[in-house]
Structures
1.
Amino acid sequence: MAPATFTHYPSAQTTFQPPLIANENAFLGDIATSEPLDPTAPISAGFYRLEKGTPLVYEYTYHEMKIIVDGEFKISDETGKKVHAKKGDVFYFEKGSKITFTTETFGLGFYVGQRKKDTA
């Protein structure tokens, strides 16, 4: 059996263009997944971009970690918790949480979710 290795995605933050997923301003796309190697407990990773416009309300059906890599978001949940997220901030979204994302400019996040590829 060959040793395990890594995969490199050069300049992914600046070159990967996630597809439109909602409204006129919410873009999300997976760039990597462990699904072929671990189909029972896969993780998938990619980028989420929100432009100024319609807020995105998203209910998580899986656990996710996200780091803000550019821009800013206003993030809130159903409990009333609100954060002005900026570059370098890290979030954990629990399975079952309902989160509202909005921005006055744009925001870009890199995420890793406990789910199959392209099922967000």
2.
Amino acid sequence: LPLAVFKKLLRPGAYQSLGVCPQQGASQGLSQGLGQGSSQALALLTPSAQLRAQLSEMLGDVAQFRPQLARGLRQLLQYRGADVEHVFCLTFEAAYDAFGARVAVPLVPGGAHMAVTSHNRVEYVQRYLHWVLTDSVARQFEPFRRGFYYVCGSNALSLFAPEEIELLVHGSGRDWAASDLRAVTDHAGFDSPAGRQLCEWFWALVAEMTAAERRQLLMFVTGSDRMPTPSQLHQFRVKLVLLGNESARLPVAHTCFNQLGLWAYRTKDELGTKLMMAITESEGFGLK
């Protein structure tokens, strides 16, 4: 989930005001949409500086899940020429793909016939961001919000910033070493000399993986490509199990139990080949 989701959960007015009132009431709307600390800081800025700060924040949030759109809107704002209408050829419409078909949504009444110019491009960006972050997801977001507060609703949520809730839900995006995962892993069935050798091969392969491959391994085993936060790590356990002698088969994961099962592969290379095939070619309950 992008950070914007958690901002909307904790700040009901987030992203709400700018797209609707682009010129008037900006200061009041910003204070409602941002957290208390942010609004106090924004109060020290001029209205134009407040507007730039909010646009920058919204563009950064959209860039997490639609980087090309955010980059294009930034280019529109940064363009210095007076011929915006002819260079960008935009109208006051948002667009999305639905089953391969392009669907246009007017951002204002008659938006299909209203060109974006150097004079109204800030309003266009505001309205487009408001549509992306609010209007386009309103039907899906409301049930999610109700479910989140049904499970996690508490006055304690007011003590958290959106970034902290995101960290609790997603886990830490930091890179991790093989030793970090090994420290929270229980081993079963590796008591024989051959089993111990297989176990050492596995951890040597994990240590040789790139950061992206380690994330794929974690996703394969647990269903998430992120490790828990350091404060939650003591509650996180992974189980590595030796399954049997059918070395022609691929490793098996049970994400509900954070369990990875290995077969008795005869060489380190064979283990590495089967493991990489499993973590890179699997999808859901089968292979891609």
3.
Amino acid sequence: MSMGVHRLWKDEFVSLLKPGSTRVGKVTRCIDVAGGTGDIALRILDYAREKKADRDLVVDLVDINPEMLKEGQKRFRKTMYHGTPQVAFHVGNAQELGQERFPDNTYDIYTIAFGIRNCTDIPAVLREAHRVLKPGGVFACLEFSKVTQPALASMYESYSFSVIPLLGTIMAGDRASYQYLVESIRRFPSQEDFSRMISDAGFEVGEPEDGGAWRNLWGGISAIHTGVKVA
């Protein structure tokens, strides 16, 4: 879909959050939801270690799909974090994480990347994110969004609905999944509407503009949204 550019977006996403602490013994607790492959969790751990010399940060990685989690576990076996308390894997539903496993006011950072548009009840996801974060905790979402530049929007629309399903047919023999992908992106709320949903869930967000409540990437092909739990 993004021709590999999503890796750069994920790098920028994590760099924006600056996870970890330079204080010895300070444990930063993160939860990465819909993150089965481990892309974001691994970047968070690497950033904390490389930029802040932090080996105390922990990530709970949550995904509704056990097979995706297995891929993430397989990937982590090749890293220095395997077998350490820094990462744990959980099968869970973003819309109802459950208070027993994921208590209120537990996490400093909540991340969800390219997953929230597949949830049937986005407000429920946002409410759960607010519940599990500590006061002062940060909600961060990376998702495909609405292109804001008219010329680019026209080209992107043509590419999405003509080229991507065709590539899915040729490369994977699965046109339907790729068609769903582009349709789910089209249905996802605009940057302003999604920012309002985050605010309605109880988060404090910035001004409703690029560089405020959200940051557009590549003209709005994707966007990073953040919010802070104030109470």
